[in-house]
Structures are given as structure tokens and as C-alpha cells.
Design brief:
By secondary structure, the chain is mainly alpha-helical. It is built from 15 helices and 5 strands. The protein is elongated.
């Protein structure tokens, strides 16, 4: 009877899409026992966003929030209120190109695309859409011209200058830790005293990027800094309380703060990518260069590639077959080969 009513509405040119949806949805629910949802792009993406909130860190949620709402703003109110299946690769490529036109760097634009891929993949996996409009082949990432450019490393004299220019004791310790361990920026800033074993003189960290647990011997210079801290060894208390919890990016983020330390120290890297519009410049020197410096210094001191990969957390399955779980003292001997930092006015030395 309902099909007949739809047919009559069609003959009278009064048939609407919503009428058809309602009949199909009722048939589906009576047969399967579950409601059939016709999701608009906005409704689905916002629903996906809120579903992720309990499962990710707050800063990650806000990154997802920015991506979802910037995409919805780009396609506009009319398109966002249409069914999710009406979003096409062209819509997403248009958004990608608009972000690039704003001056955002290729890694930033690609980061937004990788976030957007998640809800569309979930929609396809769950059967909400027949075709995923945001696959790697349908919407390609931007090429990063600076990605394969060689990065520079700091000299021991520049490390000394950075420590002297650091605005706080926490930053002095962060720079020492980055240089003497090769840990990434956020792994350094989020370090807790529970990660530090002063008795065995080792740091054990599960890295944020790879999830790999690395054990790094404490270099005597950083060990001396640790022993000078008035509060130490208290469980989950942060080693760098003024820096913990801060974002790595943004104008007030840790990367920008380190850039200002470099400016005060009179250190400038080569310009690999010049910032335009909303984008930022990309230098050959950054906090991450401490990681490159650590690795390069060990290589120059004759430390094997297997040991270096173990220390920086890059050990591959193939490498592990050749070199399984080196003794901590072997790692310690490697770390002690780092070049000496010239004496200066910093209290840690």
C-alpha cells in the first residue's frame, strides 16, 4: 500500500526523497530489527567526532574537531546537510587545495587529510556509504619539498650556547636530555620521575610516536642536572614541571619556544621552507635536530648502526634478528662517546 502511495505521489509529481527514505527505513527495521539511518554529512561527522572523544587525549580531540569543522565550513551549509554519500573526492580535493592556498605547509595539510580519512573509512566499513571518497588514491597527499632535504646538526659549542640562552632550568635540562638521549620533543617534555631510575642511571620511556619502549642510559651531564633538582623521584611527578602538558606546535608551543631560544643563542638554520599566509617557515635546525645530533655524534664516534637504532628507538624487525636486546652497559658506553660540551655559565655544568 505504501509503495502504491509513493507511485501515486510520483505520478502527481509530489514525490520527495524523504518519503522514499521513510518507507525503505520502515521495511528495513521490520526485517532486520534495527533502524536504518540516513546520515547527512554534518550529522555523521559530528557524531563520529563525539564518539572519539572518550578514547583520545583532549588535545587530539581538539585537533580532530578543527579538521571536521573546517571541512564542513568549506563545503558549506547546503552540501553538509546532504547525505554523506554525496560527498565526493572532488569536495575533499577542493578543501585540500584551499588549505594549501592559505599558506599551510604540506605536513599540516596532510595531517588534516589523514584525520578526515578516519571517519570516511569508518563510514565505508560500516556500510553507510558504498564508495569512500577519501582514500589515498582518490585524494593524494601533498608533496613536501622539505621532507627529503638534509637536516643540520648542532655543534657542541651551539649546544653550550643553547643551554646558556635557555630561559629556565627546565629548558636547560630539556636541551641536555635531547642532546644526550636522542628522545623526541614531547617524549622529553612529558618525562616523569617514574621513568627515571637514578640508581641504575637509566631512563625507560614508551615513545609517543611509535609506542616502542626504549631504555637510554643517563649521561653524566644530564645526571648531574637531575641530582640538582629540589624535587625528584616522586612517582608520576614531571621532571620538567613548567613544560609538561604543553603542545609541541603553535605560536606558544614548545617548538616555537625552542626557536626563540635559538634566536637568543644567535643560532640560525638554513631555511628549507618559507612560511606564507597561515603557514610557518621550516628550518634545518629545531629541537628535533638534537636527535639528529645525538645519532650523528654516535656514528662519528664509531658506534654501530644497530646500537644507534636501539638507542633512538628505530630498531627494525630485521635489525632485531641480528642484534637482540643489547646490555645496558654496552648502550652506556655508546652514550659516553658523545662529544664534550664546552664549559659555560649554566648551573648544570
Amino acid at each position: 500500500m505504501k509503495w502504491a502511495q509513493l507511485a501515486q505521489s510520483g505520478r502527481e509529481k509530489r514525490l520527495t526523497e524523504s518519503q522514499c527514505r521513510n518507507v525503505i527505513a520502515e521495511m528495513y527495521e521490520r526485517t532486520i530489527g534495527e533502524p536504518l539511518h540516513f546520515r547527512t554529512a554534518r550529522a555523521y561527522l559530528v557524531e563520529w567526532l563525539e564518539d572519539t572523544k572518550p578514547n583520545v587525549e583532549l588535545r587530539t580531540y581538539w585537533r580532530y574537531f578543527q579538521t571536521i569543522h573546517e571541512f564542513l565550513g568549506h563545503i558549506g551549509r547546503v552540501k553538509s546537510e546532504k547525505l554523506l554519500r554525496e560527498i565526493t573526492p572532488k569536495d575533499i580535493r577542493s578543501w585540500r587545495d584551499a588549505l594549501k592556498a592559505k599558506g599551510l605547509s604540506a605536513p599540516t595539510v596532510n595531517g588534516h587529510l589523514k584525520v578526515l580519512r578516519m571517519p570516511f573509512k569508518a563510514a565505508h566499513d560500516n556500510g553507510y556509504i558504498d564508495v569512500n571518497p577519501c582514500t589515498k588514491n582518490s585524494v593524494r597527499l601533498l608533496k613536501d619539498d622539505a621532507e627529503n632535504v638534509s637536516k643540520d646538526v648542532f655543534t657542541p659549542e651551539q649546544i653550550r650556547a643553547l643551554i646558556d640562552a635557555a630561559p629556565s632550568e627546565d629548558w636547560k635540562g630539556m636541551i641536555l636530555l635531547g642532546f644526550s638521549s636522542g628522545l623526541r620533543l614531547r617524549d622529553c617534555s612529558e618525562l616523569r620521575w617514574s621513568n627515571v631510575d637514578l640508581g641504575k642511571a637509566i631512563i625507560t620511556v614508551k615513545t609517543r610516536k611509535t609506542g616502542k619502549t626504549v631504555v637510554v642510559p643517563i649521561h653524566p651531564r644530564f645526571g648531574a642536572w637531575l641530582l640538582k633538582q629540589s624535587i625528584r623521584g616522586i612517582g608520576k611527578a614531571p621532571v620538567f614541571p613548567s613544560l609538561v602538558g604543553k603542545s609541541g606546535s603553535g605560536k606558544s608551543g614548545l617548538s616555537s619556544q625552542f626557536g626563540r631560544i635559538m634566536d637568543r643563542a644567535g643560532i640560525k638554520g638554513r631555511l628549507l621552507r618559507e612560511g606564507t599566509g597561515a603557514g610557518r617557515s621550516y628550518s634545518s635546525l629545531s629541537f628535533h635536530s638534537l636527535r639528529h645530533t645525538f645519532n650523528a655524534a654516535l656514528a662519528n664516534a664509531g658506534v654501530s648502526v644497530e646500537l644507534r637504532q636501539e638507542l633512538v628507538g628505530h630498531a627494525s624487525a630485521d635489525m632485531n634478528k641480528q642484534y637482540l636486546h643489547p646490555d645496558v652497559e654496552v648502550l652506556r658506553d655508546a652514550v659516553l662517546r658523545l662529544p664534550l660540551i664546552p664549559k659555560g655559565k649554566a648551573r648544570a655544568h
